[in-house]
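Closing statement on the zinc ion sub-project.
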Amino acid sequence: MLNLTRTAMKESAATMVILSPTLWILRIHWGGKSLICPNTRCPGCAVDRGKLKGYAIAHRPDRPESTAGLIEVGPDTLRQLTDRNLQPEAARGFAWRMERRTGTNGWKVIATTHMEPSLPEPAEHELPDAIETLFALPFRIGTDGELVKPKDPRPWLEAHRRILTTRISLNLKELAK
Ligand SMILES: [Zn+2]
């Protein structure tokens, strides 16, 4: 199972390359923990619009020991990457260099390019698998135990809508106490 790849606190520069065929953009609500917005009839959106974050399987070509891992791209970096032509539905090979002042959170994207990654393309289900694990969502969705692992987040969000909505409602009740 793929773990979340994080940059270390002390790191002031990093290079990433996306390995997965796609990058998923999910709206995340924060209420003491990260909760995925179900997009339709969301009780969280009535309170605030949340933040868009990107999820992909990537690795660090600047780190020889780097293996494939799930990355979470924050809203500011995501905006900088989409401004520089990141195509979420054809993301494999998109690479970027980012820098920040040590100890602060504000990554600045310095350069982007396309490259042939040195690691193989993960199977299509690996990105939704990793996101399911990160957010502790159920593995089996769909009917008759059929695994639904679409390459697009929208049908996946729809399949998870009930549990996502319930979680946000419970969280809002908890926060209102
Ligand atoms: Zn929402």
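The helical segments are 75-83, 126-134, 153-159, 161-176. With this model delivered, the sub-project is considered complete and its resources will be redirected to Aim 3.
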